Amino acid sequence: MTLQISDDNRVRTLVLDRPEALNAFNEELYLATATALRDAAEDPDVAVVLLTGAGRAFSAGNDLKEMAAGIADGSLSNRRIWSELPDAPDGIGIDAEDGVWVAGVVADRFARVVEGGDVTHTLDTPGRHPIACAIGGADGHTLFMLTAQTHGERDKSRAMMSAAIETTRV
């Protein structure tokens, strides 16, 4: 275990437990810490979170050896399926609440999916095919949607020149 967790008198203590690496964050420690912090935020019995490190250092930062190993062989670590998708996607964008907006080119809609696959919102685009999307705007709540009237037919697309960037608040 790379993270030790204990509770005492409404204080949750998280101890980074990789003293041999000066508590440098590898993928496992990062995920464990992120999960523990989310859990603490949702627990009404926790008023304070104390983050400390085992051994002689709090944390040396990122584990450069793990990073270098991943770069050297080009592999992805801890790869997993975050969500099965309801439509054939062509582009995605992540919103401020970590929902993923997907351009569904076959269903002619944009869909917001959360981890595990639940679709929380859909925006139909009848007559226009979703191609890509991005989230932005001053407060991160504008969905920019690239759409076109044709999809995949090169000559028809050139003749129509019908692409547009549409926006809506999300």
Q: What is the number of helices?
A: 3
Span between N and C termini? 39 Å
**Which second-level CATH architecture of the largest domain applies?**
Beta Barrel
Strand tally = 10
Which fold does the CATH topology of the largest domain refer to? Thrombin, subunit H
Structure description:
This protein is α+β, with helices and mostly antiparallel strands. It folds into two domains: 3-73, GMP Synthetase, Chain A, domain 3 (2-Layer Sandwich); 89-169, Thrombin, subunit H, CATH 2.40.10.500. It is built from three helices and ten strands. A four-stranded antiparallel β-sheet has the order 4-5-6-7, with no helix packed on it. A three-stranded mixed β-sheet has the order 1-2-3, covered by helices on one side. A three-stranded antiparallel β-sheet has the order 8-9-10, with no helix packed on it. A hairpin with a 5-residue loop joins strand 8 and strand 9. It is elongated and about 70 Å long.
Task: Spell out the key features of this protein.
Thrombin, subunit H; alpha+beta; 3 helices; 170 residues; elongated; GMP Synthetase, Chain A, domain 3; three-stranded mixed β-sheet
In summary, what is this structure?
This protein has 170 residues and is α+β, with helices and mostly antiparallel strands. The chain has helices at residues 27-42, 64-73, 154-160, and strands at 3-8, 11-16, 48-53, 89-94, 100-104, 109-113, 119-124, 129-136, 142-148, 164-169.
Helix and strand arrangement:
Elements: E1 3-8, E2 11-16, H1 27-42, E3 48-53, H2 64-73, E4 89-94, E5 100-104, E6 109-113, E7 119-124, E8 129-136, E9 142-148, H3 154-160, E10 164-169
Parallel strand pairs: 2-3
Antiparallel strand pairs: 1-2, 4-5, 5-6, 6-7, 8-9, 9-10
